[in-house]
Amino acid sequence: FPSHDRGAMTDDANGNPTTNTITVEGRPTILEWSKNGTELYYATDANKLYRVSHITDIMDLSPSSYNGKFHTDIFQYNTASGNTPNAVNLNMNSPYRTTLIGSFDVPITSISVAKDDAQMVVTFNNPTQTGTTGIVMHSGTANIKTSNAITWQKKDAGLTSLRTYCSMIEKDDVKKVFLGTDQGLYYTSDITSGTWANVNASIANAADKVPNVQIFDIKQQVLMPWDCYNSGQIYVATNGRGVWTNTEMLKNYYVGIQDSEISRSTV
Fold first, then answer.
1. Alpha-carbon gap, residue 198 to 77, rounded angstroms
2. Residue 53 · residue 39 · CB < 8 Å
3. What is the DSSP string of 168-209?
4. How does DSSP classify residue 259?
5. Could you give the CA distance from residue 81 to residue 18 in angstroms, rounded to a whole number?
6. Closest of 122, 164, 149, 144 to residue 30, by C-alpha
7. What is the DSSP track for 60-125?
8. Pairing state between β 197-198 and 153-154
9. pLDDT at residue 154 above 80?
10. Which tens digit of pLDDT belongs to each residue from 11-67?
């Protein structure tokens, strides 16, 4: 990554690499990959959201004698002083191109990218919902290379006075989103509507309810059913109440096919 307040080469308005530069504001605080692995998203402590593109073009200049650096490094190296980075001159051979895709009022607490790489959910530390940011912002155009075509909308109905720590888009349904807050786990079946409820609202048995404490992380097993025993299973990390799991999205593991016996009558 570029250093704090350093320049980074960027794409043109249509997503094509240029040698033009932008200033990266703040220090990276959160990272998230696109599901196809071609982009990396990161938030900074200046409330900015950036996308790093053309990552698939990374390669080692001399793989037979690897010496700890790539020709794709953002900055040129000063070979006269132990290959230290020269933070003044950018490396024009670097394929990385950084694009600012979001500027917000308050700190970003999580970034979630859906399997189609178009849907993105960003959460914020903004319980009072001040400014234009709110608590949750959603984009359905995050994979568009034209930076000015990426749009963000507030999707925080029913989330009054909540602090957020994490989020997760369900792997098989890009509209289903889980949200970790300081008052438990929240869920929406359609992020485009932005209507949320605590997951305990539909659970009758008290023993099955997720504790209404701080939820610091949400993970889902994204491997296919033939690659693992817990495909689709969701895990939630709480503050002081351990790890909870949910099997509603669990996919069955198949190890074979058993033929049915067919009875035959004897004539």
1. 52
2. yes
3. EE-SS-TT-EEEEETTEEEEES-TTTTB-EEGGGG---GGGS
4. P
5. 29
6. 122
7. -S-GGG--S--TT-SEEEEGGGTSEEEEEEE-TT---EEEEEEE-SS-EEEEEE-TTSS-EEEEES
8. unpaired
9. yes
10. 887 778 888 888 889 999 999 998 888 889 999 999 999 998 887 776 655 555 555
SS3 39: coil
Average pLDDT over residues 164-179: 92
Give yes or no for residue 267 having a pLDDT over 80.
no
Residues in the chain: 267
pLDDT of residue 178: 93
Q: Are 192 and 140 in contact (CB under 8 A)?
A: yes
Whole-angstrom distance, CA of residue 104 vs CA of residue 138:
13
Pick the closest to residue 72 from 56, 48, 51, 87 (CA basis): 56
16 to 20, 24, 103, 151: CA distances (angstroms): 11, 19, 22, 20
Whole-number CA gyration radius for the chain: 23
112 vs 240: CA distance, rounded Å: 24
Cα 93 from Cα 102, distance rounded (Å):
27
Q: How far apart are CA 32 and CA 122, in angstroms?
A: 11
DSSP 114-165: -TTSS-EEEEES-TT--TTT-SEEEES-TT-SSGGG---EE--BT-TT--EE
- ∠115-118-122 over CA atoms, to 5°? 90
* pLDDT confidence band for 79 (50 / 70 / 90): low
DSSP class of 55: G
